[in-house]
Amino acid sequence: MSAVDLFQITKSFGPIKAVDDVSFSVEKGELIGLLGPNGAGKTTSLRVMLDIFKPESGSVTILGGPMNESKKDHIGYMPEERGLYQDIPLDRCLAYLGSLKGLGPAEVKQRSASYLERFDLTAFKSKKVKELSKGMQQKAQVIATLLHQPELLIVDEPFGGLDPVNTQMVKDLLLEQHQKGVTIILCSHQMHQVEELCDRIVLIDHGRVMLYGALQEIRRQFSGHSVTVRTSDSIPTLPGVERIEPLNGTIKLHLLPGTAPQEILRSLVARNINLDQFEISMPTLDEIFIRVVQGQGVVA
Amino acid sequence: MNKLWHVAWHEYQRHVFTRRFVLVGLLSVPLVILVLVGLIFLILSLDIDTTPLGYVDSSGLLTNPISAPAPEWPDKPVSILAFANEADARAALESGSIQAYYVLPADYLSTGQLRVVHLDPLKSSPRVQFYDFLTANLLKSTDPAIANRLVKGAEIIVQSPDGTRSISSKNWFNVLIPIVAGIAFIIAMFSTGGYLMQAVVEEKENRTMEVIITSVSPNQLITGKIIGDTAVGLTQIVLWLVFIVIPILVFRNRFTFLQGIQIGPQTLFLLVFVMFPAFILVSALMAAIGATVSEAREGQQMVGMISLPIWIPYMLTSSLMGNPNSPLAVGLSLFPLTAPLTMLMRDGLTILPAWQIALSSAILLLSAVVAIWLAGRAFRLGMLRYGKRLKLSEIFARQKA
To answer: Which pLDDT score is estimated for A284?
Structure first.
């Protein structure tokens, strides 16, 4: 069952098509990564999803139907550009944001106390938000997003500005929410985080969906563009090889487009190279991202 | 609680429960009024000199003189002394025992001419008191009640044909009250509008907007803000009233002029049905400005477009006071932004025709509704516009907000 369905969404700003015929679904309870370079249309897609922008065409179904006011209480959204009231104390800021999500004063108090404790912010709850460090504000934003225990969590660059300890804390929190059955859309540039957390991804570029599906499947689709060999011999220049890259005691051979890994294996054997290992490399998400954005990928 | 009320309460408490509100918003106007009242009393007291006056009467009109009615507070009575000749009066003047002396020639009745001699400039209070003394004695043979009335003058009460509304020319304070109330209302209106504009711009500047609008609808947000910030303004007004009314009640028995102070039903009607919609109108326009601009400073520049027409009636005070029923006055009463101050200025001076009050109120109510719609639309279009101003043409363009 889908938690979110975007169907042929198009949204323009003047002559610029920010989102062009975008369709994808987010299954209930899944943690999906939304990727794309800057200006690709990710944030616009999220804003259309959240009914902040009305699309010119297409339809959005969210939590089983069109967006309405009551559904807003079941969605937690953390935009890339963080926003908290700077001139009021942290606890009052959380109380207000919680009340707008339908929480009563007692619930807000109890839940904020628990999260503030978890994020080591209890001592700072009476401080004005502007007096907190950037990292603390980031954590406060995470609390504000989770306070009402949303069914659907949309987080845009949740790790930006966090040190490794707090990054891990947020990552654990996302996984915990995922385990609780919360649907999570994770928008991030940090590919290794997406790779670590998400089972499926949507990659958008120039307003269009370029890749969409299970991460392992996508990696399989993009495999074959490099091979990893382990040998004590030196590797000569081979036809079809673009670049040779030593990598942790192995050698990675980056292949030219159209070159099959089997051709490379044949070339190596023909040149009497002693091979201890020959493996078709699975590309990292970073590599896939770069290739798609540079126009070398497979359009979904 | 509806989210709209959460927004309204948030706006209200973040402005009211601050030191700045108590110091600037609350105490500023009562302090200004206190300073003004103090200045008025200072000017009045500078005009008072209780040193006796003298006179030399060759006309025989001031033989066995009677006293004039005592002057009203804050004026103080001046003793008026008779001198047998001008030399004695001159000596008294030079010795400082009198501040001036008048000489009534024998033909005063036919010529109306008299001389006054003084060393230092003669202030208006003793001058007026001598004329009252002279008038009272000229009317000595007349019925004392008539003489007294002639000296004290008439109190003209302008009354509406149905007798429900009236204005007295004697209670000058009552002329000032609507004007002062109007100015106080407008100050509160602008501080409220300022809060509102600041709140909208701030939420754009600190990027809170995107979080908020995923919790409430833009309409709930803007309406909640308008309600909350209007309540801030009304709190300000109510507290100002408390600061003003309490001293009036306390000193009512001591100063007789305070007893004549009254706020008529017409003034109350104007405050509710003209000033209140005007309040909403200005608040909504300020919110719309906040939604269209990208930073607070830019918004302040645009506020001038609203504040200038609002203060125009103040600039035309002499014309409006000279003829409070002129076509100009009526025209300004019907234009939404000039109506609030014009109506209250005219209220103290004339009986406003019921149709003008009703029409002005209706126009303001309609304008307030349109302004809220405009603010809502500008808000929806401009809420996520960072670093780029929303054009007026975009607000009116037929596209999805």
So the answer is: 81
Task: Considering only CA atoms, give the Rg of chain A.
Answer: 23
Q: Does A99 touch chain B (CB under 8 A)?
A: yes
Candidate from A2-16, A17-31, B23-37 with smallest mean pLDDT: B23-37
B292, two tokens: 């269209």
CB contacts < 8 A, A to B, total: 60
Q: How confident is the model at residue A299 (pLDDT cuts 50, 70, 90)?
A: very low
Of B203, B213, B400, the CB nearest to A52: B213
Which residues are registered as beta bridge partners of A89? A128
Residue found under tokens 């007294």: B148
Nearest to B228 by CA among B10, B2, B3: B10
Angle at B385 between CA B379 and CA B391, to 5 degrees: 70
Residue B3 at interface with chain A, using a CB cutoff of 8 Å: yes
Least Cα separation, residue A144 to chain B (angstroms): 9
Mean pLDDT over residues A239-251, rounded?
A: 89
| pLDDT reading at A300 higher than 50 | no
HSE of A102 in the Cβ direction (CA atoms, 13 Å)? 13
CA A126 – CA B58 distance, rounded (Å): 86
Q: Mean pLDDT throughout A52-64?
A: 92
Q: Is residue B203 within 8 angstroms of chain A, CB to CB?
A: yes
Q: In percent, how much of chain A has pLDDT > 70?
A: 98
Q: What is the mean pLDDT of residues A160-185?
A: 90
Q: What is the pLDDT of residues A180-222, one digit of tens each?
A: 999 999 998 888 888 889 989 999 988 999 889 998 888 888 8
Q: How far is A31 from chain B (nearest CA, A)?
A: 20
Q: What average pLDDT does range B220-225 have in this prediction?
A: 88
Q: In the block, which residue shows the tokens 């003829």?
A: B323
CB interface of A with B, residues 18-47, below 8 Å? 47
Query: What is the 3-state secondary structure of chain B?
Result: CCHHHHHHHHHHHHHHCCHHHHHHHHCHHHHHHHHHHHHHHHHHHHCCCCCCEEEEECCCCCCCCCCCCCCCCCCCCCCEEEECCHHHHHHHHHHCCCCEEEEECCCHHHHCCCEEEECCCCCHHHHHHHHHHHHHHHCCCCCHHHHHHHHHCCCCEEECCCCCCEEECCCHHHHHHHHHHHHHHHHHHHHHHHHHHHHHHHHHHCCCHHHHCCCCCHHHHHHHHHHHHHHHHHHHHHHHHHHHHHHHHHHCCCCHHHHCCCCCHHHHHHHHHHHHHHHHHHHHHHHHHHHHCCCHHHHHHHHHHHHHHHHHHHHCHHHHHHCCCCHHHHHHHHCCCCHHHHHHHHHCCCCCCHHHHHHHHHHHHHHHHHHHHHHHHHHHHHCCCCCCCCCHHHHHCCCCC
Computed on alpha carbons and rounded to an integer, the radius of gyration of chain B in Å comes to: 29
**Is B397's Cβ below 8 Å from some Cβ in A?**
no
Distance from C-alpha of A26 to C-alpha of A182, rounded to nearest angstrom: 12
Q: pLDDT grade, residue A112 (50/70/90)?
A: very high
* pTM score: 0.72
CA distance A50 to chain B (A): 7
Instruction: Kindly tell me if the per-residue pLDDT of B361 is higher than 90.
Output: yes
Tell me, what's the pLDDT at B386?
63
Tell me the pLDDT of chain A averaged across its residues.
89
Q: What is the mean pLDDT of the segment spanning B376-389? A: 73
